[in-house]
User: What shape does this take?
Amino acid sequence: MGAQRHGRSSSTFSAAQVTPDCVSNQRSSTESGNKVLEDEDFLSWYERWLDELLAGYDVTWFGEKLPGDEPSLLGVLACDPSPHRRARAARSLRALPAITQTAAEALTEAATDSDPLVREVVMEVAWRSKVPGLESAARAALTDPEAPVRAEAISALRALGVADVAEQARLLLTDPDREVKWRAMQALADSGRMVAADLAPLITGQDARTRETATYFLIKAQGEAHGLLVRALGDEDPTVRRQAVQTAEQRDERMLLPIMERMLKAETDAYVRVNLDRVVAAWSVNR
Assistant: This one.
């Protein structure tokens, strides 16, 4: 499984280069404290909210955004010694009216930041804001040593609609991290090229939540899924069985009706029984 989401480090990625300008910016921030990059009081906060609203910024999550325009945020992203502030600066770029080419280039540089939190947030920005200039960085991040970065990277390629997103997603279906597998299934399903065979190893795997998720994605999968649904209907975990009933219903797999009727006689989980009752009753009409 992936490492903890915060406070991580990896020797695989080199630290960002600190330029003389960065040194100057760091010194200024240290000397002035919060007055340089944070609001002094509520009135300052409110005035900044008005200014950014009138400037066309997205103020939906204003309290999370670092103060400043693009140059200020890029300065923090490149130079601030705190990885949490660098990550906040990257995320704050999403509030601007647009992510410019200059910002995209800065985000590409930050995609190789020494701290995995920054890399993760950069990939999050790439997919939430659909930044085409970050496609190459997202491809490289698919093999990042940290699972959260890989998860955001495949979501970025999914959002960008790259031609080979299905192939890239299939490679991540064997990832050891549950979240990465979930994002890969989502990307593969959205591509319209998911087949039932893609999900077979996950439906028969050891992790119950992954089995449940894979059973859900069978709804969108092409190809024959009867055998996989039989397996899922007999799963030891009730959440998988419940999802199997729902998936069978969505796919209209009526050949499973005899199995579901037998399940009703022995099923002990209330939620599974509710689903079985509904589907069996509906499919038994005009049998």
